[in-house]
């Protein structure tokens, strides 16, 4: 394989701890090929000074970033990426704001990225582009004459064609996607949606197992379910911070059975539905009174997008109502914490909980589900309650699978999780761990890059 060039909205130094899953996954390939990682610097600058390229060495890897002007950032990032693509790709047409000005900014920034990246490219580079912010990047590079192999991975779901069709620029977006040589999704469901779009909307044909012909090009589309770095996460679990968190939780909640939810504060994660299901649990199964405690941690994100402020208020009201209706002087049913837990403490929090509630309304994959399983003690593991609408549910069939829209059904399953006998918990955990190990994040990167180079 030639040099690896990674392009994503944000760039991380793969040598730094806590650089994130993508950095961990790509570190080997970037370092061994003396690779390049290109993206937005995270800085928003005054009009006129945007677009400046900065490069920096991180060992054998080059990090190249550009700043964005306020107008570009607002239209590309807040407007089109997070105000149109994120909601629609999560099946939420009701939350999409199709402001015509934003598409111009989205195109402008993708073109800017292509113009800044092209002079840094070498003929035998292999280019791997990540996520919905950068769908048209290959088309822009191809228009400039770049013939390198280009792959794209979508980290969020791809909805059915009838939902995609609501985006005024859906034809252009999907044609842009077909300018890659390989398009990767988390699940077979996403690939099926892609295939149906190509065949029924774009007039294309399927020409092989995973090959499609449309707009005069052949593109391959396959599922590559992302995993976690199991060894790294378990090593974190043995560290002092995680052990300290585990001990503290066990002491504080010695009389209780803990349930945990860990999410970004995002409407795709099904947080209000989860709190309502927990409320039903307390109503239908009163034996959980003064026993079950749900710790819900939600890290604020994209607070300048309007739908997120509404969600925050809704969640605060709901948690207040559950605690007001069911709480006792010495028992608070829901502890809602609006911040991120330091990564080194996460495995300790997961390990202290008998049940994890991972119940998104839609999720590309959901890595919290995998982290929870990896953090469990195999001799006495907790139970994962997982939404059928998380990509993770396609492979994690030994979790208890729920429909997050069905509060009563979910309450029943949570009760089953709280009462599950040790032997069943062990068997389910062992099978889930085998899946986690077989398809970890290193496997994911190797599989995608092998397919792209083939
Ligand atoms: P996200 O929507 O961010 O990712 P997820 O896969 O759950 O969702 O990853 C979140 C990561 O952030 C996990 O490592 C988790 O531990 C951490 N995290 C979340 N909330 C936290 C909190 N409150 N405190 C501390 N840490 C927290 C997108 C897609 C997913 C897809 C990933 C990877 O939406 O579907 O799985 O990309 O492709």
Task: Quickly list its features.
single chain, 454 residues, alpha/beta, Rossmann fold, ten-stranded mixed sheet, 16 helices, 20% strand, globular, binds adenosine-5'-diphosphate-glucose
Reconstruct the topology from this structure.
Blueprint: E1 4-10, H1 21-32, E2 36-45, E3 53-58, E4 61-69, H2 70-89, H3 100-117, E5 126-130, H4 137-143, E6 149-153, H5 161-164, H6 170-177, E7 182-185, H7 188-201, E8 205-206, E9 211-214, E10 217-223, H8 230-237, H9 240-252, E11 257-264, H10 271-284, E12 292-299, H11 306-326, E13 334-337, H12 346-352, E14 355-358, H13 367-374, E15 383-387, E16 400-402, H14 407-419, H15 422-438, H16 441-453
Parallel strand pairs: 1-2, 1-5, 2-4, 5-6, 6-7, 7-10, 11-12, 11-14, 12-13, 14-15, 15-16
Antiparallel strand pairs: 3-4, 8-9, 9-10
Helix pairs in contact: 1-16, 2-3, 3-4, 9-12, 10-11, 10-14
Averaged pLDDT, please? Answer: 95
Biggest pleated sheet = 10 strands, mixed
Shape descriptor reads globular
Q: What is the CATH C-level name of the largest domain?
A: Alpha Beta
Instruction: Give me the CATH architecture of the largest domain, please.
Output: 3-Layer(aba) Sandwich
Tell me how many strands there are.
Answer: 16
Domains (count): 2
Task: Give start-end ranges of low-pLDDT stretches.
Answer: none
Strand proportion? 15-25%
CATH superfamily heading of the largest domain: Glycogen Phosphorylase B
What hetero molecules are bound to the protein chains?
Answer: adenosine-5'-diphosphate-glucose
Number of helices: 16
Kindly report the spatial arrangement of strands forming the biggest sheet.
3-4-2-1-5-6-7-10-9-8
N/C terminus separation:
9 Å
CATH structural fold name of the largest domain = Rossmann fold
Secondary-structure content class: alpha/beta
In which range does the helix fraction lie?
Answer: 40-55%
């Amino acid at each position: 394989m030639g040099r690896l060039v990674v392009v994503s909205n944000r760039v991380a130094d793969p040598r730094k701890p806590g650089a994130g899953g993508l950095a961990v996954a790509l570190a080997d390939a970037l370092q061994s090929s003396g690779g390049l990682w290109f993206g937005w610097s995270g800085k928003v600058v005054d009009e006129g000074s945007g677009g400046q390229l900065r490069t920096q060495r991180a060992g054998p890897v080059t990090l190249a970033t550009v700043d964005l002007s306020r107008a570009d950032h607002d239209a590309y990032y807040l407007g089109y990426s997070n105000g149109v693509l994120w909601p629609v790709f999560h099946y939420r047409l009701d939350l999409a704001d199709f402001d015509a000005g934003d598409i111009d900014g989205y195109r402008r920034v993708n073109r800017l990225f292509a113009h800044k990246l092209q002079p840094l490219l070498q003929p035998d580079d292999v280019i791997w582009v990540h996520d919905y912010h950068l769908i048209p990047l290959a088309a822009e590079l191809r228009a400039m004459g770049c013939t390198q192999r280009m792959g794209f991975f979508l980290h969020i779901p791809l909805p059915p064609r009838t939902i995609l069709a609501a985006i005024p620029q859906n034809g252009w977006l999907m044609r842009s996607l077909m300018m890659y040589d390989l398009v990767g999704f988390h699940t077979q469901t996403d690939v099926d949606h892609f295939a149906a779009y190509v065949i029924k909307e774009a007039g294309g044909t399927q020409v092989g197992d995973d090959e499609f012909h449309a707009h005069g090009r052949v593109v391959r589309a396959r599922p590559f379910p992302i995993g976690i770095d199991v060894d790294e996460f378990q090593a974190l679990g043995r560290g002092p911070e995680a052990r300290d968190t585990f001990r503290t939780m066990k002491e504080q909640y010695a009389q209780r059975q803990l349930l945990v939810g860990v999410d970004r504060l995002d409407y795709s994660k099904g947080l209000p539905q989860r709190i309502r299901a927990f409320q039903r649990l307390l109503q239908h199964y009163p034996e959980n009174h003064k026993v079950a405690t749900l710790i819900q941690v939600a890290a604020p994100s994209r607070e300048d997008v309007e739908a997120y402020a509404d969600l925050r208020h809704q969640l605060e009201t709901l948690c207040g109502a559950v605690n007001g209706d069911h709480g006792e002087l010495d028992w608070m049913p829901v502890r809602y914490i609006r911040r991120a837990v330091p990564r080194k403490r996460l495995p300790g929090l997961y390990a202290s909980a008998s049940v994890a509630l991972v119940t998104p309304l839609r999720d590309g994959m959901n890595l919290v589900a995998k982290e929870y399983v990896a953090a469990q003690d195999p001799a006495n593991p907790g139970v994962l309650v997982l939404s059928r609408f998380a990509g993770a549910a396609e492979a994690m069939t030994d979790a208890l699978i729920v429909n997050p829209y069905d509060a009563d059904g979910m309450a029943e399953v949570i009760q089953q999780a709280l009462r599950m006998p040790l032997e069943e918990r062990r068997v389910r955990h062992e099978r889930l761990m085998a899946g986690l190990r077989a398809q970890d994040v290193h496997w994911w990167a190797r599989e995608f890059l092998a397919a792209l180079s083939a």
